Amino acid sequence: xxxxxxxWVSRFTDQTPGDAEKGGTSRQVPGACWSRVDPTxxxxxxxxxxxxxxxxxxxxxxxxxxxxxxxSLIEGMDPYAQRYGGHQFGNWAGQLGDGRAITLGEAxxxxxxxxxxxxxxxxxxxxxxxxxxxxxRSSIREFLCSEAMFHLGVPTTRALSMVTTGEEVVRDVMxxxxxxxxxxxxxxxxxxxxxxxxxxxxxxxxxxxxxLRKLVDYTVRHHFPDHSTDSDEALLKWLKxxxxxxxxxxxxxxxxxxxxxxMNTDNMSIHGLTIDYGPYGWLEGYxxxxxxxxxxxxxxxxxxxxxxxIGEWNFARLxxxxxxxxxxxxxxxxxxxxxxxxxxxxxxGVWVAKLGLGEFRPEDEELISELVSNLEMVETDMTILFRSxxxxxxxxxxxIEFAFYDQESIPVQEWGQWLSKWWQRVDGQPDLEAMRxxxxxYVLRNWMAQLAIDAAEQGDYSVANELHEMLKxxxxxxxxxxxxxxxxxxxxxxxxxxCSMLSCSS
Length: 506
Fold this sequence. Notes:
Elements: E1 7-9, H1 11-15, E2 34-36, E3 46-50, H2 52-58, H3 65-68, E4 80-82, E5 85-88, E6 91-95, E7 101-108, E8 113-119, E9 134-135, H4 136-152, E10 158-171, E11 180-191, H5 197-205, H6 209-223, H7 232-256, E12 258-259, E13 281-282, H8 307-322, H9 332-354, H10 364-377, H11 382-389, H12 412-425, H13 432-438, H14 446-456, H15 462-470, H16 482-485
Helix pairs in contact: 4-14, 5-6, 5-8, 7-8, 7-9, 8-9, 10-12, 14-15
């Protein structure tokens, strides 16, 4: 089976309003949910990274780079770029849309319908002043992180492939006036849909309630078939499911120490999927105030500890966009309250699993608060600390020493007291199996991704492939990878661009 043998359908373009013009230059596209546009052919597409798991789900074998690099299309594909808006760093940005992503079409696997989208495949009507391309560095990061998150059990879009294009793309990595040519690349990503909060916002904000209604009806009919849109009550039930899925996703981010970095409303999936991997990062030293995005360095709006609140703020913006379709929009507060309640439930579930508590008790709030305080006392690796706890046979501080960057500065007394308190709480029998399934041993740290990028830029994709293979089993011990990858951030990465400093071009 190949891409050409898939059953391609065109639900979205057939059933929602679209742009009368195909392709064209950057422009405003009122009254539309999408614009038809073909990918831009590239001179030398070469397949470099491949997800056999995602391919198996689609029911296909390995492909060549032509289609996945954007140089050719298959009969039945109906390529388009989606139109949406969004709040960026809290400010309404107007029309945005897929400026460097083109959905090839929808593939009906028999089990489900999945959209295949090329990221970095050329200009669309929504590219504004950009070239619609992507580079090797950002594409490796997107491919590896999409697949790593899936195997961590975090809701996410998937990656099928990464193709280099044989062309050079000029980028100013840190927006500091020093543009330079980089290797071009395209990622094929897969999801039930790429609808975002901003997909609905753009119509509400422009007063196009007719198109808004059509998009909501389409979304619920195809993606939330257990719901309907025929009443306020029905819309609320649907929105509460969106709240649940969004809250669950963010709780998972917090569980594994992931920071998205750019939680604009146009980067929030209606399905509660992690989407748009740009300036993301994993906590190295535990710091609720950390954000990997240099654009966010001053306000730290999207910092680790604030992600659930931003999820709430973004969800409120979605609710505002649905308000014009309701007889009593005041009832939308019910959905907002539901998000808060849902996040609390998921968050407590995370802590129960991470600490092997069995169940949540009110007094556990104090236990968790004291743990977080300890984590912030000195530079402590979150991933290694929780994995170490998952293998403890006794409340012994020496068994967690590896998690600290400076072992001379370990607050032994505070950690000893906390370990004893935790051990007493679980009667000396924490649920270690649950803990090992909640606390990964391996995550895609930025310095690891950077090593893969450094090698790939020299034509060596072995590091990227090794990381891809290892991250398929992040909860397994995998001793063959320990010396290289079960490590705290090395000193060389502390202040390096791509490791500690990232931009939205990352």
